[in-house]
Amino acid sequence: METRVSLWLPLLLCSIMCLGTNVVQGNPNYKDALAKSILFFQGQRSGRLPTNQLLSWRSNSGLSDGAVARVDLTGGYYDAGDNVKFNFPMAYTTTMLSWSTLEYGKRMGAQLPNARAAIRWATDYLLKCAKATPGKLYVGVGDPNVDHSCWERPEDMDTTRSVYSVSPSNPGSDVAGETAAALAAASLVFRVADPKYSRLLLNTAKQVMQFAMQYRGAYSDSLGSAVCPFYCSYSGYKDELLWGAAWLYRATNDVYYANFLKSLGANDATDIFSWDNKFAGARVLLSRRALLNKDSSYEQFRQQAEDFMCRILPNSPSSTTQYTPGGLMFKLSESNLQYVTSITFLLTTYSKYMSSAKHTFSCGNMVVTPSTLKYLAKKQVDYILGVNPLKMSYMVGYGTTFPRRIHHRGSSLPSLLSHPQAIGCQGGFQPFYYTSSPNPNILTGAIVGGPDQNDGFSDDRTAYSHSEPATYINAAIVGPLTYFAASYSA
């Protein structure tokens, strides 16, 4: 009976999730989507751009970042459609790009150097933030409240580039733990390709993690309106301590981190994974030791990872996840695809671990195989790439029908090449923001916030919760796209 349930599960899933979708089935061109998903990061770059910059409508920006604190904080990424550098989501983006490269790098082919370049653009900046001033970790550049009242190109920024930091007296265990995770994960990416850089990343990760562990507190409490409501640490900082220690343990095998992990007592059940809440990601990462290394002391994390999967699967008796009529996972109305891509990464990665370990588990009386998770992950990726009721690709520049009016300053305003005159803080709203015309610049590979719970999408620049792209949406889908690019022909 168990075998029959597991064999028929994909058909059962489809009967539930494909009902009334009227979409064309088939395998999208995952290889093309993968290349574009990584190219997107070039459009988010801050700092002095390299000569091999392919998205040529972008130019140098933020060249004085850090000057008000007399430090060099140039580089890094703008998080979404604005011109602020928020390190909390940027570090998560870096961790997810690194994890994608670690799990799937051997399948990336020609995209592996591009993935490393995208990671390094972030880690070069994060290293500056960690090393510029002893006893401080810089965690952001640009006043978000001022920036969000402007609509101007990053190349024209004339707003105050305020600098924000955490310290022993103003702690930020969440942003520090995530920064440590990013540096540790990236150190593994560069361990063979650039050993010297890898050592620098790992040594800095250890220092930042020590700070996160020693000086406990949420960065939202320390920085207030500089990060809230934009990137408040809603889930607290225990998840980042777990996440950071998990990555340090993976990078070092130091029992110090293993002991810390087990002392945290992080038993919070969850059905989400995002830049804010890392519990599920940490548990999948740690379950690797239970499944692949047969280490029974990590069984707790395996069980928690599988509890998470049971909360995601649509016909699991313990599912707490809503799906749209077209089969898209729907978590929250604000930028829903960020949750879809992050959870999809965990689905493919846990499926991969299960396959290697020849492992299955149960959600009640439902047997879950590696194929169960892989099927659901493919459904989500395909939906994003256009296998949905609107036949709309939610990746800009992929396919023929994709969002043309994304909520993104650089994309929506003419480039310096076509409009060399400066566009001031308020100068971009008319005629560029409040217009139904398509954006003049294509932010290739950008995945937007996505459709509503009824599969509807208006392609409206002012509807930012649906039309705004973000680095953390893209970073999480790189792994699944690589996985499916290697599994299916275009």
TrEMBL record:
Stored InterPro entries: 6-hairpin_glycosidase_sf, 6hp_glycosidase-like_sf, Glyco_hydro_9, Glyco_hydro_9_Asp/Glu_AS, Glyco_hydro_9_His_AS
Domain called Glycoside hydrolase family: residue spans: 30-480
Keyword RNA-binding applies: no
BP term (GO), one: cellulose catabolic process
Keywords: Carbohydrate metabolism, Cellulose degradation, Glycosidase, Hydrolase, Polysaccharide degradation, Signal
Active site, UniProt feature: H407, D459, E468
Domain of life: Eukaryota
Signal peptide boundaries: 1-26
Enzyme type, top EC level: hydrolase
EC annotation from Swiss-Prot or TrEMBL: 3.2.1.4
Substrates-to-products reaction catalysed: Endohydrolysis of (1->4)-beta-D-glucosidic linkages in cellulose, lichenin and cereal beta-D-glucans
MF-aspect GO terms: cellulase activity
Protein family: Belongs to the glycosyl hydrolase 9 (cellulase E) family.
PANTHER family: ENDO-1,4-BETA-GLUCANASE (PTHR22298)
Protein name in UniProt: Endoglucanase
Organism: Rhodamnia argentea
Gene name linked to the record: LOC115736137
